[in-house]
Amino acid sequence: MTFEPAQHQLAFVLPVSFRKAEVIFQKRFDHSEEVHLVVQPNQRPRQVVSTQQLSSGLWHVILDWWDGKRHYWAEKDILIH
Question: What domain of life is recorded for the organism (predicted)?
């Protein structure tokens, strides 16, 4: 997972075989702010989601995906200015 603050986006690579995926943004220290984005399968491994709608502050990002057999996830903290 790579946060690209100048472009207001989060980029990541998923296997082409993934069946479903979701990106969850959780605002640190303010659990009332949480954003869920569904990632649709396509033929490209690199996926990009916008962070433009997120308010300033520290966010915990969870990338959660399923390949039909196993469940995977990755986590990262990002700072939105």
Answer: Bacteria
Q: What is the pLDDT of residues 9-30, one digit of tens each?
A: 999 999 988 999 999 999 998 8
The domain total for the chain is 1
Q: Backbone phi, then psi, for 6, in 5-degree steps?
A: -65, -30
Query: Is there a contact between 3 and 59 (Cβ–Cβ < 8 Å)?
Result: no
Which domain range does residue 53 map to? 2-80
Which pair of tokens denotes residue 73?
Answer: 């996830």
This prediction's pTM: 0.90
3-class secondary-structure state, position 18: coil
Structure tokens belonging to residue 76: 């990262």
Which pairing describes strands 46-50 and 71-80: parallel, antiparallel, or unpaired? Answer: unpaired
CATH label of the domain that carries residue 30: 2.60.40.10
